[in-house]
Known about the structure:
single chain; 124 residues; alpha/beta; 2 helices; 8 strands; globular; dioxygenase activity; Catechol 2,3-dioxygenase-like lactoylglutathione lyase family enzyme; Glyas_Fos-R_dOase_dom; Glyas_Bleomycin-R_OHBP_Dase
Amino acid sequence: MIGYVTLGTNDRERSAQFYDAVAGAMGVGRMFETDQFIAWGEMGGAPGLAATRPHDGKTATPGNGTMVALQVDSVDMVHKVHRTALNHGGTDEGAPGPRGDDGFYAGYFRDPDGNKLNVFTMVK
């Protein structure tokens, strides 16, 4: 079971502003913070997300083929979170919409450091 996902950043304050907005659109805030990283979510709740400066001191880079999927409970929330990401320095990687025929509805974006995320829900 996943407890949290960590994404690298080269600018902690820029990431903080971006993820404060995205997490806020999902109804959660910061749950843990140090000088090295910030984690968003709820203690004991769904898996959290953290932005961190790499421990080895090297430059953070996005993983090729790596993506974090953020689950929400409605199509409206997919649009809200995707729009919030783009309004706070994210870049569009695929507008919200249905993907396939199985009820998967998602929008894709990258954070200011280039990490790829999506926000999704399952439509019945």
